[in-house]
Amino acid sequence: MGLLSVIAAAAVAWIFGAGYYMALSKPWIEASGVPVDASGRPAGGANPTPFVLSALAMLLVAGMMRHIFSMAGIATFGAGIVSGLGVGLFFIAPWIMINNAYAMRPFRLTLIDGGYAVAGAAIIGAVLTLF
C-alpha cells in the first residue's frame, strides 16, 4: 500500500499543479522571465522534459513525506494536511525564496511557486493519509 499511496499522492499533486500553473500562467511567465513565442506561450513549450522532471520530483517528495509521516505516526487526514502545509510552508517555500532571491527574480515568482509548494505538499499529506 505504501507505494500506491506515494504514486497516488504524487499524481494528485502533479495534476493540481497543472491546473494551478494554467490559472497563473500569465503572471508566472512575466515573473519568471521565460522567453515566449509569438502566441505568448513559453518558447519550446512542447519539450516534455519539465513535465517528466516535475512528475519525478513529486514522487520523491511524496515518498519522503510518507517516510516522515510513518516515522512520526501521522495517520489522520487532518494531521496529514497540517503536516503537509508545514512541509510546504517551512521547508520548500523558503528554499524557493532563497533560490529566487540569489537569482534576482521578482518576489512575485516566489509567491506563485511557493504557493504551489504549500498547496501541493498539503495535498500530498492529505492523500497519503487516505491509504
Offer a few descriptive terms:
131 residues; mainly alpha; 5 helices; globular
Describe the global form. globular
Give the strand content.
under 5%
Q: What portion of residues is helical?
A: over 70%
Overall residue-averaged pLDDT value:
95
Please tell me the total number of domains. Answer: 1
| Biggest sheet features | none
Instruction: Name the poorly predicted regions.
Output: none
Order of helices and strands: HHHHH
Number of strands: 0
- The number of helical segments is 5
Distance between the termini: 7 Å
Give the helix/strand class: mainly alpha
Write a structural description.
- This protein is mostly helical and 131 residues long.
- The protein has one domain.
- It has five helices and no strands.
- The longest helix has 26 residues, at 77-102.
- It starts with a helix and ends with a helix.
Give the secondary structure arrangement, pairings included.
Blueprint: H1 2-23, H2 25-32, H3 49-72, H4 77-102, H5 107-128
Short précis:
With 131 residues, the chain is mainly alpha-helical. Helices cover 78% and strands 0% of the residues. Helix 2 packs across helix 5.
